[in-house]
Design brief:
Layout: H1 2-22, E1 78-80, H2 87-93, H3 98-104, E2 118-120, H4 160-169, E3 202-204, E4 214-217, E5 223-225, E6 230-236, E7 244-249, E8 254-261, E9 263-264, E10 271-272, E11 277-280, E12 290-297, E13 300-302
Antiparallel strand pairs: 1-2, 3-4, 4-12, 5-11, 6-7, 6-10, 7-8, 8-12, 9-11, 12-13
């Protein structure tokens, strides 16, 4: 009986082993890292197509602010700002006070002007800025001294050397009607009688392209004098190429400029008299000590030799 039971157990175990050996083993999953896409099998759903890129709608931007005064471009009395322009230069080139130009154009910051802007450079109708004429003082031109160093009138406050020179040469001074002085100057109600702004010799004369005035030599500290009565419309170093600069407005027609000074003795809006010492000669923004002197008629540089007394 025991033998039959053991035989049955052995037979059952053998059968179980045979069944297990006949079942196929399952394979481990393999990941395909190739570039080819798997082919769709029958009955399978194809992969979804890649959607086209969606372009974002342009974002709303602030409207571009139009440049100032474009409606006046090309009109007389207006200036279109060019690259390199400053308000001081624009005013000088148009015979105006830069503060007036800033006021006429409602400039909150006169240092910020844009290329392409159109600025008013003549007073608007009814503006009283040009109604303040500066009465010319000293109708007699500067007395002439020696041919090389003409004497200059004394500055207010007492310049003994200049006063002595003027006194010693008074007997030889030409009158205001002298052909040597008045005959060459244009006639007009705003015309002035001028004096030389410095004693030194002439280094360079007027040239419409290379030199818009006259260069007068001298030593550092020599007196620079107002060539006629006027009012200071600029005193500073904000105009490239001019160094320490004084600009005087004499009337509705004339401005004068005094450049390269080592020191300035006047301030803006100050009234000055003909012969008054307004600066000291120097070499700021220049290759040597000299005074660069300009006369501007309605903003345009003119030859000072046509206006200054003969030496």
């Amino acid at each position: 009986m025991k033998n039959l039971t053991g035989l049955a157990l052995m037979t059952l175990c053998a059968a179980l082993l045979t069944a297990c050996s006949s079942r196929p083993l399952s394979k481990a999953p393999v990941e395909d890292r190739g570039t080819s896409r798997p082919s769709a099998t029958a009955g399978s759903r194809p992969p979804p197509a890649t959607p086209p890129p969606v372009l974002a709608a342009p974002s709303a931007t602030e409207p571009v602010k139009p440049l100032r005064g474009l409606e006046n471009a090309g009109k007389p009395g207006f200036h279109t700002v060019q690259r390199g322009d400053t308000l001081i230069r624009i005013a000088l080139d148009n015979g105006q006070n830069w503060r007036d130009v800033a006021r006429w154009n409602n400039l909150d910051n006169p240092s910020l002007i844009e290329v392409g802007e159109v600025l008013r450079v003549v007073p608007p109708q009814g503006d009283g800025v040009v109604a303040r004429p500066i009465t010319p003082g000293g109708a007699v031109p500067a007395p002439l001294g020696s041919a090389s160093r003409p004497a200059m009138p004394a500055a207010p406050g007492g310049n003994a050397e200049a006063a002595a020179a003027a006194s010693s040469s008074a007997s030889t001074a030409p009158s205001a009607a002298s052909p040597a002085t008045a005959a060459s100057a244009p006639a007009g109600e705003d015309e002035l009688v001028w004096i030389w702004p410095a004693r030194g010799t002439t280094l360079a004369g007027f040239d419409e392209i290379k030199n818009k005035g006259v260069d007068i030599g001298g030593r550092a500290g020599d007196a620079v004098l107002a060539a006629a009565d006027g009012r200071v419309v600029y005193a500073g170093a904000g105009l490239r190429g001019y160094g320490n600069l004084v600009i005087l407005k004499h009337n509705n027609t004339y401005l004068t400029a005094y450049a390269h000074n080592q020191s300035l003795l006047v301030k803006e809006d100050q009234a000055v008299k003909q012969g008054q010492k307004i600066a000291e000669m120097g070499s700021t923004d220049a290759d040597r000590v000299k005074l660069h002197f300009e006369i501007r008629r309605k903003g345009k540089p003119v030859d000072p030799a046509r206006y200054l007394p003969a030496r």
